[in-house]
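Checklist before submission:
- one chain only
- standard amino acids only
- sequence pasted in full

Submission:
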Amino acid sequence: MPEIVPVPPEEGKCRFTDLELSPEIMAGVQSMNFKYCTAIQEKCLPHAIAGKDLAAKAQTGTGKTAAFLASAMTRMLKNPIEKRAPGTCRALVLAPTRELAIQIHKDALATGKYTNLNN
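Returned file contents:
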């Protein structure tokens, strides 16, 4: 796993490094060259990481998928289940189209690159 690189602060921007993401997820996020959160990520990620329910709506391309993947994976890594049967599902992501499901899977592989999570 690569070292987490500090990101310089910028006025009015929330850095991913400001969030309580697991180190493995932070390394994945940085390997995708993400440094600063989008508006939807800044609003949603703290609540999602804390395990709170939320609903959000934003335009395509604003980072909703990255937000829910990073928060879900962080929660799984920080809260492992003891004596879990191999191959059991901890999260199920539903998508309305095959193409979107493929894209979400690709993003999950990149986000979780430095974890032992299966997608």
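Reviewer check: The chain is about 40% helix and 0% strand.
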